[in-house]
Amino acid sequence: MKILQEFKEFAVKGNVIDLAVGVIIGGAFGKIVTSLVNDIIMPPVGVLLGNVDFKDLKIPIGDAPDMTDGTIVVQPAIYYGSFINTILDFLIVALCIFFMVKGINHLRRITEKEKVADVTAPTEKECPHCLSQVPIKATRCKHCTSHLVNSTINE
Q1: Among the listed residues 103, 81, 88, the one whose alpha carbon sits nearest the alpha carbon of residue 33
Q2: Domain-wise residue ranges, the chain
Q3: pTM metric for this prediction
Q4: What is the residue-wise DSSP string for 96-135?
Q5: Over the stretch 21-62, which tens digit does the pLDDT of each residue have?
Q6: Topology, domain 2-121
């Protein structure tokens, strides 16, 4: 029963939904990258290499099949062109994720610096007349009622 309760808390927190959304968007992004590599990047590269279609690049394994009876037999082969396409897919996805994480980390560092600046900023100053601590924005001391316009901040 404890495991069921923990799972219910996990699911209710929204972690499962966030994970599901991430997986769905990641799958769609993967399809976009695959199309980018197969349909946009590889055709010009194939033309530059002498009208080669990377999907058809292969190293045959064994002898060619006998097709005298009219049957179509797929010859075993190592399809390295398809493998090159898959490597390019991976590199593009990894590069996009790298830049996305780099941007998120940059934003996180900016917000952390702002938080540190807010925490380290003094909140009180010393009254030069009675030496009591008063809020930094005060213009009059709450203890001796002296004017604090040109007073120094006690750091």
Answers
A1: 88
A2: 2-121, 122-155
A3: 0.53
A4: HHHHHHHHHHHHHHHHHHHHHHHHHS--EEE-TTT--EEE
A5: 888 988 898 888 888 888 888 888 888 888 877 778 888 887
A6: 1.10.1200
